TrEMBL record:
Function: Iron-sulfur subunit of the cytochrome bc1 complex, an essential component of the respiratory electron transport chain required for ATP synthesis. The bc1 complex catalyzes the oxidation of menaquinol and the reduction of cytochrome c in the respiratory chain. The bc1 complex operates through a Q-cycle mechanism that couples electron transfer to generation of the proton gradient that drives ATP synthesis.
Stretches for region Disordered: 1-40
Bias-annotated ranges (Basic and acidic residues): 1-17
Entries under PANTHER family matching the protein: CYTOCHROME B-C1 COMPLEX SUBUNIT RIESKE, MITOCHONDRIAL (PTHR10134)
Name this polypeptide is given: Cytochrome bc1 complex Rieske iron-sulfur subunit
Coiled-coil parts of chain: none
Cellular location(s): Cell membrane
Organism (species): Streptomyces sulfonofaciens
Protein keywords: 2Fe-2S, Cell membrane, Disulfide bond, Electron transport, Iron, Iron-sulfur, Membrane, Metal-binding, Oxidoreductase, Respiratory chain, Transmembrane, Transmembrane helix, Transport
Length: 353
């Protein structure tokens, strides 16, 4: 590309034969300024502006209806009801309804505000010079004047339908938070103290789904079990297994230090809750030589040869032990429920039952 192909105003300075400097008439780096303002259809057509106003009002109205639906769902849907949602599976119906209605209510307020700003509020581009951090009186007056002008251009006073529905949506939405406080109750009463384990319940292998015999538990092994009759297809499976999950190990009887643990075992086979007593994580790491189990979440360590007591970490109390034995058919069975609640501590844990 030759210099003849370049516009003259883009050519650099150059020297002439007599040493004179030739300077282009225009500065190629000059501020081009703002492009011409293009009016939106809503700026020139009041019918289009009315349609945008109705759209914004519809979004705010949907938000109000969803907030009402949130409150109605809290009272109308049973707490233990579950529904199947593809592809998630079985979930709690109340949680699904509360999350859906609250999410749509918040989204519609945001979407309405954005659509209002994009279609009805002023979109004229304004360039303002930078000023010192400390504003002088003239600047403060200008800011207040700009605010008043912005409020005027927002048409909030003129668009009564938007104003009414927006205030309604914003007034109703905080009620959702008030009713969320009810999620802290009702009290669990005796639910935290009892699991599916009961006298005569067979110990079923979590992997094979078969009842366990003493011969299935070799010395030094770690086996996970569940109560007989609990199936993964059950709607409340996750809720029940969170309390009833069991880990079984076999220790030489002479290595068991705690007398009650020895009495509650069968030929060195001991059964403990798999739920960590810190925040309820499932325990899965077993050290064969020391008979210690480790929670992978926060490294709480328990000694399964000494009553499941805490050796290290933030856990507050020992793992609950399950009293087990063998039935007449030779299968391992529970002799009752855990002697104390499983999982993390709670205020009423030490209270009389």
């Amino acid at each position: 590309m030759s210099n003849h192909d370049i516009p003259e105003e883009n050519l650099p300075e150059r020297s002439t034969a007599h040493g004179e400097v030739s300077v282009p008439d225009e500065n190629p780096f000059a501020d081009p300024g703002l492009p011409p303002h293009e009016h939106r259809i809503q700026d020139i057509d009041e019918g289009a502006a009315r349609r945008s106003e109705r759209t914004v009002a519809l979004l705010f109205t949907i938000s109000m209806l969803c907030t009402v639906g949130f409150i109605a769902s809290y009272f109308a849907i049973p707490r233990d009801k579950s529904i199947f949602v593809f592809p998630i599976g079985h979930i709690n119906a109340m949680n699904f309804a509360l999350g859906l209605t609250l999410g749509v209510a918040l989204f519609c307020i945001g979407a309405g505000a954005v659509h209002w700003a994009r279609t009805l509020m002023s979109d004229v581009e304004i360039a303002d010079e930078r000023h010192a951090i400390e504003a002088d009186p003239e600047t403060k007056q200008k800011v207040l004047a700009d605010f008043a002008q912005g409020a005027k251009e927002s048409a909030l006073g003129r668009r009564g339908l938007i104003r009414t529905t927006m205030f309604g949506a914003l007034a109703l939405l905080p009620l959702s938070g008030v009713f969320l406080l009810g999620g802290l109750g009702p009290k669990p009463e005796e639910k935290l103290r009892h699991t599916l384990w009961a006298k005569g319940k067979l110990l079923v292998n979590m992997n094979t789904d078969q009842p366990l015999r003493p011969a299935d538990i070799p010395v030094g092994s770690l086996t996970f079990a569940k109560p007989d009759g609990l199936e993964e297809s059950d709607e409340d499976f996750q809720q029940q297994i969170a309390k009833a999950a069991l880990m079984i190990i076999r220790i030489q009887p002479e290595n068991i230090k705690d007398k009650r643990e020895l009495d509650w075992s069968h030929d060195g086979i001991v059964a403990y809750s798999k739920i960590c007593t810190h925040v309820g994580c499932p325990i899965s790491l077993y050290e064969q030589q020391t008979h210690h189990v480790l929670c992978p979440c926060h490294q709480s360590t328990f000694d399964l040869s000494d009553g499941g007591r805490v050796l290290f970490g933030p856990a507050g109390h020992a793992l609950p032990q399950l009293h087990i034995g063998v039935n007449q058919d030779g299968f391992l069975e529970a002799r009752g429920d855990f002697a104390e609640p499983v999982g993390p501590a709670f205020w009423e844990r030490g209270a009389e039952k």
